[in-house]
Amino acid sequence: MCEYCGCRDIALIGRLSEEHYGAVNALGGLRRAIEAKDADEVARAIRAMTSHLFPHNGCEEAGLFKGLCQPEYCEYYGATVAGLVEQHALMKDQLARIEAGDWAVIGEFEITLRHHIDQEENGLFPATAVTLDGDTWTMIDELTHEYDHATGRAHEH
């Protein structure tokens, strides 16, 4: 995770980064449950992962990614954001396959999740810290806040 550029000092980026730690921890629980061949624990671990990851992904898409697709930034960030949204869909599909009993997908899911986090932590987040202006961050914060309220997601005021 990014610890070197200061991007985590931006409240939203700091929050999203902390949520990445939670996703990696949930991944460990899921992997251990699959390795133990414990169907009940796999089901619990899937619920833990999806209840953590899906709201996180939705928050990114509704706030940060939407802000990055504004006309003044879309040329620079558009392809990256599109790729990250595709990865969100892929992770959702991979988790559904695991939940349906295809536990061998855990390896693919782990690679997708870790690559996705790396792209954000060591690419997107530091880049946004130096390229977005204050008005854009305000808009992103407002969009994120609206998403949080609409979905009942815990957040600060």
Which labels suit this protein?
157 residues, mainly alpha, 6 helices
Describe the structure.
The protein has 6 helices and no strands. With 157 residues, it is an all-alpha fold. The protein has one domain: Four Helix Bundle (Hemerythrin (Met), subunit A) (Up-down Bundle), CATH 1.20.120.
Brief summary:
By secondary structure, the chain is mainly α. Helix content is 81%, strand content 0%. It has helices at residues 11-35, 39-62, 64-68, 71-99, 106-131, 134-151.
What's the helix and strand layout?
Blueprint: H1 11-35, H2 39-62, H3 64-68, H4 71-99, H5 106-131, H6 134-151
Helix pairs in contact: 1-2, 1-5, 2-4, 2-6, 4-5
Write down the domain tally.
1
The helix content is: over 70%
Number of helices: 6
Mean residue pLDDT? 92
Shape annotation: elongated
Architecture (CATH level 2) name:
Up-down Bundle
**Helix and strand string, N-terminal first?**
HHHHHH
Main sheet properties:
none
Give the class-level CATH name: Mainly Alpha
Structural class: mainly alpha
What's the total number of strands? Answer: 0
Radius of gyration: 16 Å
Classify the fold: give the CATH topology.
Answer: Four Helix Bundle (Hemerythrin (Met), subunit A)
β-strand amount:
under 5%
Residue stretches low in confidence (pLDDT < 50, at least 5 long) are none
N- to C-terminal separation?
26 Å
